[in-house]
Design brief:
Blueprint: E1 16-18, E2 21-24, E3 29-33, E4 36-38, H1 40-44, H2 47-58, H3 64-71, H4 78-91, H5 96-112, H6 117-129, H7 133-146, H8 152-162, H9 167-180, H10 185-197, H11 201-214, H12 219-231, H13 235-243, H14 256-271, H15 275-289, H16 291-301, H17 324-327
Antiparallel strand pairs: 1-4, 2-3
Helix pairs in contact: 4-5, 5-6, 6-7, 6-8, 7-8, 8-9, 9-10, 10-11, 10-12, 11-12, 12-13, 12-14, 14-15, 15-16
Length: about 325
């Protein structure tokens, strides 16, 4: 954030500077870049000019719907945009509690801009994932009224079908969405999860690997990819991928599917008698999420965990001390 030069005694007007770049993916060479400075509203309004410059640089011939997708202005409210982006970042770790937090952030975005179609579509998918189907359908219809051509409508419809166990229908919607957003790593992950549900494991793995290639720092993608390799007994590849977790922000390293990967690793080490290595896994998780949440995770993840097999770290013996949100790490209710 910067303030442009002002006359003495004049209050500084807020301004934003951002630098869009067009980068050649194969060698990361910057093809075009330009600094844009202006008020927050002007910055949000600059997308069309940026699209025009990128199209000019690449000498592209865009179809009308492709140009509309690129030029679509999501919101005029800067604060609503911040909540929307924060919800996207939070949602990258996956899991029911995380999705609930992301949906709450979108509540704030929508409160600031009640015409924010993409926020409604995003919240529809999140609500479906936490079992609030009716509200999700309401959000989907609201988004459709606001912007009938919004690509994210297809993503939301896919989520609603997936959580109603209509995996074939979800696949159709997500594939249609990917026709318009081919580099969306999260959508590719979702396709992989639906394919996995249908028993099409190799196809699922291909989609997840592609999602990871597009966004190596997406915690939900990485965790699901690790777990899929383990389920397919590709243990060497799974171990290689676990090593990539260190590149993630600390708060994302033991969340959602990555926490499940921790559990699988601990379980396998216990099974083969490597107790010290298994305990190291638990200690890493405990340092990250806290011992009480770790206990909740262990209780909710497995029916065969015994107190005899746990290290003596001073856990309370009364399971009632485990908070409800701790059990929710794996979606356990009640």
């Amino acid at each position: 954030w910067i303030s442009p030069p002002q006359e003495r005694g004049t209050p500084a007007a807020p301004a934003v500077a951002f630098v869009p770049e067009l980068v050649q993916a194969s060698d990361r060479q910057v093809v075009w870049t330009e600094e844009v400075i202006g008020s927050p509203d002007a910055a949000l309004a600059s997308s069309r000019e940026i699209v025009d410059r990128v199209v000019e640089e690449l000498d592209l011939r865009l179809a009308a719907d492709q140009r509309r997708d690129l030029e679509r202005r999501l919101t005029n409210n800067e604060e609503a945009w911040r909540y929307f982006e924060k919800a996207r970042r939070v949602g990258k770790s996956g899991g029911i509690p995380v999705n609930r937090r992301a949906a709450t952030l979108l509540d704030s975005a929508i409160a600031l801009d009640t015409a924010f179609a993409r926020a409604y579509a995003g919240r529809a998918g999140l609500l479906a994932s936490i079992g609030e189907m009716d509200r999700g359908l309401e959000d989907l219809e609201r988004a459709r009224l606001l912007d009938p051509d919004l690509p994210e409508l297809l993503a939301a419809e896919g989520a609603l079908k997936y959580f109603r166990q209509d995996y074939e229908g979800a696949l159709r919607d997500w594939d249609s969405y990917l026709d318009r957003r081919p580099s969306d790593a999260e959508a590719l992950l979702n396709v992989g999860l639906a394919l996995r549900r249908l028993g099409r494991w190799e196809e699922a793995l291909q989609r997840m690997e592609r999602a990871h290639e597009l966004n190596p720092r997406h915690a939900n993608v990485l965790g699901n990819l690790i777990n899929t390799h383990r389920l397919m007994k590709n243990y060497a590849r799974a171990e290689d991928l676990i090593g990539l977790r260190e590149s993630l922000p600390l708060e994302l390293r033991h969340t959602g599917p990555l926490l499940r990967a921790d559990w699988d690793q601990w379980s396998r080490l216990q099974h083969y008698g490597d107790v010290r290595a298994a305990e190291r896994v638990l200690r890493v998780v405990a340092d990250s999420v806290g011992s009480n949440r770790l206990l909740g995770w262990l209780v909710s993840s497995s029916l065969n965990v015994t107190w005899f097999g746990l290290p003596n770290w001073g856990f309370r013996e009364d399971l009632r001390s485990v908070r409800a949100e701790d059990l929710e790490l794996q979606g356990v209710r009640g």
